Amino acid sequence: MSNEQIPEGKPPIDLRTLTQVAYGLFAIGLLSGGMFGIATIAAMVLLYLKRPEAAGTVYASHFDWLMQTFWWGLLALVISGIATYIYIGWVGVVATGVWILYRLVKGWLALLEWRAPS
C-alpha cells in the first residue's frame, strides 16, 4: 500500500488549457461575425476571473494580450461604426477585423510554442 496523500480541496486549474479555452471562445466570437459575441464576452469574464491565478506566469501575458485586443478592438469598431455614417467607416471595420484576427493567431501560436506573445 502507498502512503500517497490525496490533496484536499479543488485540484489546481491548468492555466494552459484555460488560456486555450479563452483563445477558442474569442475566435468563435470573432469568426462568427458577432453572431456569437457572447463567446467573446465569456472569454473576457474568464480572463478577468482567473487573472490572479495566472499572475507571474507566461499565461498572464496571454491574458493581457487578449484583454488588450478586446478593448482596443472594441474602441476601433465603435469609432469605425460611427464613421460608417459618412461612408468611410467600413474600411475601419474591415481593418479592425483583420487586426484582431492577426493578434488572435499570433497570440495563439505563441501559446502553442510555450512563449509569451510579443
Distance between the termini: 49 Å
Oligomer category: single chain
User: What is the count of distinct domains?
Assistant: 1
Q: Structural class, judged by helices and strands?
A: mainly alpha
Low-confidence segments: none
Number of strands: 0
Sheet-strand content, in percent, reads: under 5%
What is the approximate shape?
Answer: elongated
Main beta-sheet annotation: none
Helix percentage range: over 70%
Mean pLDDT across all residues, rounded?
88
Helical stretch tally: 4
Order of helices and strands: HHHH
CA gyration radius, whole angstroms = 18 Å
Task: List the defining traits of the structure above.
mainly alpha; 118 residues
Q: What do you see in this structure?
A:
With 118 residues, this protein is mainly alpha-helical. It has one domain. It is built from four helices and no strands. The chain has helices spanning 15-31, 37-54, 58-83, 89-112. Helix 2 (37-54) packs antiparallel against helix 3 and helix 3 (58-83) packs antiparallel against helix 4 (89-112). The chain is elongated.
